[in-house]
Amino acid sequence: MSSRVLVGLDGAVLDPDAPLLFADDLAAVRGDGIFETLLVRGRRVCTLDLHLARLTTSAEAMDLPAPDLPRWRTAVAAAVKAWDSDDEGVMRMSIGRGRESGGPPTGYVTVGPLADRVRSARRDGVSVVTLPRGLSIEAASSPWQLLGAKTLSYAINMAALRYAAGLGADDVVFVSSEGMVLEGPRSTVVAVTGQSLLTPPVEYGVLRGTTVSALFEVASGSGYECAYAPLRPADLIVADSVWLVSSVTLAARVRSLDGLARAERPGDDEIRTLVDLAVESI
């Protein structure tokens, strides 16, 4: 097993330490591209169909050619085979617009090990601060904002995480200019109260979470009422529990919100189990 894997769209396994992009690739110089991050678990990729569907939606929003899904499936299968481990891995499917001097889009698949922060977030939860995103929920009506597309332009997200770290926090929940909960820089927000699971509407311009979609399907069959509904920070405070849900970290319990500690509750293990079941069965 290699500690890192790189596969081209022709299914060829490449040297992960050899150069791949040209210096004028627009993915590198402008962040002009899209990507998906997936969990490799038990020698298979979790929720692949949901990620391929979102990759297609993002490509449409970015005016990129529609992904050739059979080629992507071939590349994904080759990457999993090259990973060749029962250990969990992080897979990334990336598409860049191509070279500034002209040429086709650039596409490739990588697999690497889980970051230590992922295991810590799953085990211990995360401390979170709310930060203004500087956007209105009405911005979703402006398609050039690319809200809801998973683009390579992550500078603001990473800056928010660095700012939170400076405050002693692990993660962020973005809030709109109207004071509505949006999403995390790399996660979807889920509030749990009793048998109810709520997450902000995609109409607010938040990314449609693949893991939340899978979770809602499984949880609905287990007696939970699941809905996309408006949430304010106050709603998170009064909820039984709050989670940051994502494809790789899966379920990270918010153990403190803006400095307010939130205790573990008996039903929390059930939420973790539901998320695990969701990503493994869909």
UniProtKB/TrEMBL annotation:
<dbReference type="GO" id="GO:0046394">
    <property type="term" value="P:carboxylic acid biosynthetic process"/>
</dbReference>
<dbReference type="InterPro" id="IPR001544">
    <property type="entry name" value="Aminotrans_IV"/>
</dbReference>
<dbReference type="Pfam" id="PF01063">
    <property type="entry name" value="Aminotran_4"/>
</dbReference>
<dbReference type="InterPro" id="IPR043131">
    <property type="entry name" value="BCAT-like_N"/>
</dbReference>
<keyword id="KW-0456">Lyase</keyword>
<dbReference type="InterPro" id="IPR050571">
    <property type="entry name" value="Class-IV_PLP-Dep_Aminotrnsfr"/>
</dbReference>
<dbReference type="GO" id="GO:0005829">
    <property type="term" value="C:cytosol"/>
</dbReference>
<dbReference type="InterPro" id="IPR036038">
    <property type="entry name" value="Aminotransferase-like"/>
</dbReference>
<dbReference type="GO" id="GO:0016829">
    <property type="term" value="F:lyase activity"/>
</dbReference>
<dbReference type="InterPro" id="IPR043132">
    <property type="entry name" value="BCAT-like_C"/>
</dbReference>
<protein>
    <submittedName>
        <fullName>4-amino-4-deoxychorismate lyase</fullName>
    </submittedName>
</protein>
<comment type="similarity">
    <text>Belongs to the class-IV pyridoxal-phosphate-dependent aminotransferase family.</text>
</comment>
